[in-house]
Amino acid sequence: MTGWQLNLGPLKEPLGFIKLLEWISAIFSFATCGGYSGKTEIIVSCGNATVPNETLTASFMYPFRLHLQTFELKDLKCVDKWLPSHLTGDFSSSAEFYVAIGVFAFLYSMVALALYLGFMHLYRDTQKFPLIDFIITVIFAFMWLVSSSAWAKGLTDIKAATSPENIARHHCQGGFLCSPGQESHMGSLNISVAFGFLNLVLWAGNAWFVYKETHLHAPSLSNAEQDPGNPGNIPSP
Question: Which ranges carry the MARVEL domain (predicted)?
Fold first, then answer.
């Protein structure tokens, strides 16, 4: 039979159970990164005690093109001295690459789970499906290593570029007095990096269990029977 045959048995095996974990982990990876938005603040004064201070805010979000974000100035009296101030840096490449790997991993894990649960009889009766699955799994493991490392470096740079202390030190000139304001919490971005390296472990570990399903690990019985030099071909009495 070649049709759909629902079988939840593979979920009890490492092959299917780890794939389910990969599917869940991929969701957390791209959701915690792609859904982030934050802001950084600096407190600016004109150096005159009679003029109240003003808090300037610059919002930023995925994909973290910080150079497009400016501080919003509203009621500062010495506005004629203020020049538009931008955040610095464009970290969209590492962020978008990381999210793309997460989305593709999510989609492939879903397809693989459907194959395991409905067509495992075809999966194990042919040599083509396990080999393709193994190659794709190894590629994803490598991609998680590259994307997670790039995103971890990008996140470090984002923290430095949006730090109120760094901004107050470098962005305020021409008679303005600046002090750091509130710093945005980046807990979800830290979690996204952690899930990236967790995905690396899951996909690298799963590669071994997929490899065991291929003919590379266990040659077919028919090939063994055709080999006259194989000691296992001794007929039973």
Answer: 10-215
Q: Which tens digits make up the pLDDT trace of 6-37? A: 788 888 899 899 999 999 999 999 999 999 99
User: Could you read off the pLDDT of 95-151 as tens digits, one per residue?
Assistant: 999 999 999 999 999 999 999 998 888 888 888 889 999 999 999 999 999 999 999
Q: How many helices (H) and strands (E) does the chain have?
A: 6, 3
Question: From CA 140, how far away is CA 95, in angstroms rounded?
Answer: 17
Q: Where are the domains of the chain?
A: 9-218
The CB density around residue 228, as the number of other CB atoms within 10 Å, is 6
The residue type found at 82 is W
Q: Which whole-number Å values give the CA distances from 100 to 52, 144, 176, 189, in the listed order?
A: 46, 11, 42, 16
CB atoms within 10 A of CB 225: 11
Sequence letter at residue 175: G
Q: Residue 137 and residue 212: Cα distance in Å, rounded?
A: 13
Q: How far lies 134's CA from each of 5, 15, 188, 212, 224, in Å?
A: 23, 11, 31, 9, 23
- Cα angle 58, 60, 62 (rounded to 5 degrees) comes to 175
- Cα–Cα distances (Å) from 173 to 26, 161, 169, 194, in that order, read 44, 18, 9, 38
How is residue 51 annotated by DSSP? S
